[in-house]
Amino acid sequence: MLTVSQQTAPLAKGEPKKIATREAYGQALLELGSERDDIVVLDADLSGSTKTKAFGQAYPDRFFNMGVAEANMIGTAAGLAAMGKTVFASSFAMFAAGKAWEQIRQSVCVPRLNVRICATHAGLTVGEDGKSHQMLEDISLMRVLPYMTVLVPADAVETRKAVRAAADADGPVYVRLSRASTPVIYDESYDFQIGRGSTLREGSDVALIACGVEVAEALGAAEILAAAGIQARVLNLATIDPIDTELIVAAAEQCGAIVTCEEHQIHGGLGEAVAGVVARNHPALVDMVGMDGEFGQSGTATQLLAHYGLDAASIAVRAQNLLKRKG
Amino acid sequence: MTLTSKRRDEIQQVALQARRDIVRMVHAAACGHPGGPLGMADFMATLFVEHLRLSPENLHEPDRDRFILGNGHTCAGYYALLAHKGLIPRDELLNFRKMGAMLQGHPHRNADMGVDFSTGSLGNSLSVGVGMALAAKLNGWDTRVYNTSSDGESQEGQIWEAATSAAHYGVDNLTVLVDFNNIQIDGVMREVMNVRDLREKYEAFGWHAVDVDGHDVDAVDGALCEAKAVKDRPSAIIAHTTIGRGVSYMEGQAKWHGVAPNDEELELALSELVAPA
User: I want to staple A173 with a disulfide (CB 3.0 to 4.6 A). Which of A140, A166, A308, B31 is the partner?
Assistant: First the structure.
């Protein structure tokens, strides 16, 4: 009997549309604003880029631009949440998770408040802005925090559902979003649940476990592998914490080899989260595709993913090499 | 509005009792911070007795006032005042800082004790006060939000981010009481890192700001009344105090920022902390 996560999720059909997850976030906020009076949105002078601006125009009384001051934005969000508001606070991932980490720990996680930090422009796919803006450490920084739910949606459909789920969640949530337009993977009928991964493609030779923009790359890698006669299972682990142990253990048992794919440092990110579950429950071969201890540089999103070995072709090669070790 | 002599006596009594509690609590814990809360006791008692709308009766009313101890390490005095208000059993005071105790070494948010926010990391809490003040305004409540801070804490940059945003959004329901004792852990504030004139700084950031003698309960009461009357601006009350006030050997001494009195020192302190004849 397959669990919900092990059944293949409903996927978008036809030529894929491309929409940035930050766009879907802006849309979800507008919906939430019309449905719930308790929703308050904060931004740190990046509302045009993070897409909170539309909420601010529709609900000016419940939108506060906090200027270029991320630590104060997070503290203010905590104060609003302590008074019963459901608060969304946005900036680029570099500044939201990086600059304000201690405020997130002390003022949001310690008192376990309903602050949702929706951080856009995460990862290499920020592109031309280069290493100062390419946040590659936020999954690690956020998943280490007690009570913090960490979501990394893969496409616009999942983002909209994840943001709505975050609004209803109990306690702090971090949502990692992207700048670049990426393919829409899911059909609207997809049922997102916090704590559940989803199966996008069946296979039992190797499992590709990805999150965020790397889900589309993993699906591309599975196509390349299929042409070589290798059936790769593709899993989207949109919730990094709490992690879907059942789905990972099933992949370890049934595939025996796992390649994790993340637009993030492999240290402390998705890969180590998955490896921890595998090591404790059902040891299996694991390789980790991601940034291996270096910062990025300027370039287009596509160029950067290829350069650092995070694109579909690179993932396929890593999977084939891992399978050689599996024997 | 001026204090009646009866109210003045009551505030001074509460401050004295708080000081006696502070030295006992820190002695019982064998660690903690006695100097700061001894210095703050007069302005804290004025706030808690005369102004802060927080009591067992209104504890769970959403629009009551809020209090955030920004300089969280001075919590012995805060807990003593919560006990005075009937929000903490007096017996708990001597379990301060002990394993499993209600009264943590730095305040942790607790709806049943009326501890409105978790603090301890300097610099973080004025921002939280801004958020609470904004929420009260959004809800149309007449809630007032009171923060404490200190001269040492004013070295943290986030204080000035918060000050900027509080003035920008005109949260006139927010008041910060800054304990200015010129002492921080490593010594004399003006030598370690001089924050200079905080009244001028807050004024430059768009606040209503006043200097007061933090041991003059009439002056503190007057400043708190004035803060309530100010419109469209938050208020800062720079309360000039002496660290360790009331215990001769602690007064003005940086050493007593974070050291517990021993048995002998406790007795000496308690012998000094008595009502004037």
Answer: A166
